[in-house]
Amino acid sequence: MFTTKEIWEAGRAALGLAPAAATPPAAVVIAPVATNEQPGVSDPIAFAFSPRVYRIHFKNGNSGEYDGAALATAFPFDASQIERIEPVEEVGQDL
Question: pLDDT (tens digit, 9 = 90+) per residue, 58-69?
């Protein structure tokens, strides 16, 4: 039997790639998001989404409604492109 690491290294060697130990880990940098409606939401990835629907407004003018339970487990968007996050029942009430 082979360990997962041994299989991984054999695959990298077969592809002609350097061993994983020689590859430095990539640093992930997430820009903080400034929001006017919810000042506590500076980092959408760290935001505690509850199981309800949220509208996410993007800097390019688009927006969409997304399930908070799914967003709590995996945040699929680029945090630097988000303008603000609002629970759906609160959208438009600040007019």
Answer: 999 999 999 988
Give pLDDT, residue 18.
Answer: 72
pTM of the model: 0.49
**Tokens 């990835």 — which residue?**
45
Query: CA-based diameter of the chain, in Å?
Result: 64
Nearest Cα residue to 47 out of 37, 28, 89, 25: 37
Distance CA 15, CA 6 (A): 14
Cα–Cα separations (whole angstroms), residue 46 to 6, 18, 27, 43, 71: 34, 34, 17, 5, 10
**Domain ranges for the chain:** 26-90
The set of residues, in sequence order, having a beta carbon less than 8 Å from that of 49 and lying 6+ positions away, is 68, 69, 71, 72
